[in-house]
Amino acid sequence: MIRSLVNRPALGNFPSLDMHDILSTGLLRAAPPGLNQVFTASTGSDANETAYKAAFMWRRANERGDADFTPEEIESAMRNQAPGAPEYSILSFNGGFHGRTFGSLATTRSKPIHKLDIPSFDWPSAPFPKLQYPLDQFSVENAAEEQRCIDEVERILDTSSKPVAAIVVEPIQSEGGDNHASASFFCKLRVLTEQKGVLLIVDEVQTGVGASGKFWAHEHWDLSSPPDMVTFSKKAQAAGFYYGKSDLRPKQAYRQFNTWMGDPARAIIFRSILEEIERLDLVKNVAQVGDRLFNSLAQLSQKYPHEIHNLRGKDRGTFIAWDSTRRDEVIVKALQKGVLIGGSGARAIRLRPMLVFQNQHGTFIR
Amino acid sequence: MIRSLVNRPALGNFPSLDMHDILSTGLLRAAPPGLNQVFTASTGSDANETAYKAAFMWRRANERGDADFTPEEIESAMRNQAPGAPEYSILSFNGGFHGRTFGSLATTRSKPIHKLDIPSFDWPSAPFPKLQYPLDQFSVENAAEEQRCIDEVERILDTSSKPVAAIVVEPIQSEGGDNHASASFFCKLRVLTEQKGVLLIVDEVQTGVGASGKFWAHEHWDLSSPPDMVTFSKKAQAAGFYYGKSDLRPKQAYRQFNTWMGDPARAIIFRSILEEIERLDLVKNVAQVGDRLFNSLAQLSQKYPHEIHNLRGKDRGTFIAWDSTRRDEVIVKALQKGVLIGGSGARAIRLRPMLVFQNQHGTFIR
Fold it and tell me: Which of A144, B135, B223, B334 fits as disulfide partner to B339, beta carbons 3.0 to 4.6 Å?
């Protein structure tokens, strides 16, 4: 889908099928700040795997310089051995979820049921901050916890026997239980990865496209420089990764390529979603409704402290969650009242309303 | 897509959106003989990876029996280590192509450009028969070559340090250069895998849906028992794998699962493709047109032996190829005459006409 598949004038009343137009008015117009290229894929797993492949090719290209592949690389790659198939790694965080194909699954660290019985790569993982709530009562402890995790990431980058080409991280660990970290944590991660020559991949498969109260959740962080790649799927109804650096595009053709290259129809659907989000100002709507929802839940949490612990997602739109000791019971009771909410992690209840969720829909929590 | 997503009566003139109906009149009605279940996926790579995952889960379940996961398995799986992430393998053939995501890519052995710089699994590969043409002049040599490959597969199954859960094989190695083996070779492979307790996955991503002159290319073999899994994509406009054994379905929920589970719209499209294939009797058409095409090319090959070597694909519908020492030049010249043909492997020219290709379209070769 990178090249124009059907590049011709519009037919009668049909809209143009010029892929350049579809991308420039759709997927590329929605690109996160600083990123101006997109690689289309089929699923969130596929988006992450192609991002990982781009990271590995970039890393080897840096080492190789202008040299061509060596005969030894070519021969060993066909045997799945180094140096052709190098022993590089992607660093992910405990509690993270990045997909279920073999490469993405190797970086998924949320629950054993996803991983059991599946051969995997010996890739490293780092602790993700375990923050204590309410945040304003634990600012010293939480800052120390985040620094501990950053220090551990640095130690792994310096000592991993399988050199780390990229770190992949979710803005909010979603499947793992709606685990948050501060903007400061992610800014430190960006600085550290730049210092170490390691790419930063932000997995916005769950958080992207408005649910956090910004179009991309990482826009909340005010990073010193953009992430190297941002992956997306789910709400986008299309999948892939954004990037900015031209050298993430391999020099040789067909290295990042497959039959489907995503689905052009989904790129068109995404453009319509984007237009609807803008027409109804849905990102602003999510931010406003999210604020009210969070404040209402904070009041409930004070009133029923045994039911609603660790309320989180302040200033993150409707991406709100809390812990409950009788989680599954609450989810069933809510459903009986017509409210569809879900669980994540071990004991979290998470809200994931659609972008059109408005204050009048929230009367149930009064 | 395994469960009925939208299970309700038809609305007015719209067709039913009952997924059970869509599958039973579409994807499942087209199932290869002996296979009666389908797992839907997003792409050919995804189809193969989910088939591999099913094979690994099946293998461990056989070893584990009725026992639950052990604490050690659960803990080690989260670290990507054995026993939770066992050191099992999938055996593939040199020259095979099975996809480009990390797991499927580990079994792809066609060209280094797909694999270079990407970390891989230390999985074994076996030689695929290198047949000599014309077949009737080399029957002794070819039988010996196929037996050599079967013997090597047996040796690997007996000695691999990473136990082989499944063998994946294409009926005709497509991307690798249209490499054929005899029905006898595949029958021996089926017998051997059953003897060794190893699953046989037939990758029909390229060969499936009619192009070989049968709906599934492996129907040409007359196997003693059906393959354990058959994967599909491309022409199907939907992707996934068929299977017959119920124990390839994991006992626990959510082990084979993801957000998209393929695309219900594509299952509907597949049903329409199937109906059109039947309405126009296209598989029979492919067989007949393929015979005539092959015979015409065989005559040309005798007339121009320096241009058309190793003609192959007899009795395989329009899945026809030959080798050419000036392959790229021939492809360009054909295009200039309005004939779109392609290359595969190192020097093969392959034909992949659509199923509606008929004798009158072939006048160019007179």
Answer: B334
Whether A8 is in a domain gets the answer no
CA distance A169 to B183: 49
Nearest to B168 by CA among B92, B242, B233, B243: B92
Q: What is the DSSP letter of A249?
A: S
User: What CATH number should be reported for the domain holding residue A240?
Assistant: 3.40.640.10
Structural domain tally of chain A?
Answer: 2
Residues B167, B58 share a domain: yes
Specify whether A249 is located in the same domain as A314. Answer: no
> How far is residue A239's CA from residue A259's CA, in Å, rounded to a whole number?
15
Of A191, A111, A178, whose CA–CA distance to A147 is shortest? A191
Last residue of a domain, one of B239, B264, B279: B279
pLDDT digits (tens, 9 = 90+) for B25-40: 999 999 999 999 999 9
Q: ipTM greater than 0.90, yes or no?
A: yes
Last residue of a domain, one of B249, B279, B309: B279
Answer yes or no: do B113 and A56 touch at CB < 8 A.
no
Contacts of B115 in chain A (CB under 8 A): 77-78, 80, 84-85
Which of A:72-131 have CB within 8 Å of B? 73-74, 77-81, 84-89, 94, 99-104, 106, 109, 112-123, 125
Give a yes or no: residue B11 inside a domain.
no
pLDDT in tens, B143-176: 999 999 999 999 999 999 999 999 999 999 999 9
pLDDT at A199 > cutoff 50 = yes
**Which strands form A342-344's sheet, in the order they lie side by side?**
A309-312, A321-323, A348-350, A342-344
Domain that holds residue A351: 282-365
Residues of chain A positioned with their CB less than 8 A from the CB of B45: 46, 101, 258
pLDDT tens column, B97-113: 999 999 999 999 999 99
